[in-house]
Amino acid sequence: MNNYELTEYCNDIAKEIAEETSNFDTANEQAHERAEGSEHVIYHYKAHWICQNCDIDQGEDFFSDRYSGEHGKSYDEIATIMACGEIQARISSKLWEIFEERWVQNPMRGSVKP
Q: Is 110 left (phi over 0), alpha (psi -120 to 50) or beta?
């Protein structure tokens, strides 16, 4: 998986979530759940692949925010946390774009403005 493929993977998940709900907060909760359950997070070798082949700035920020001090995490755990953070951030970014576009097109649609 490369950076482009990871973005497409996350965009597809975001589109699926956006089809399932019109509530932005619910969509963000689902983004978190889908990221944590992603095969690229639960399988260490896939998480390592993301960390080695993709831009993981957001994943590194996610790790730093959660484990800023002594963490005692293994290499595998760190890779999965960063992959999860990166996937979640990309899904959330696409959700923001989708929901913002919905709100601009129809502010009365009932979805919460992002």
A: left
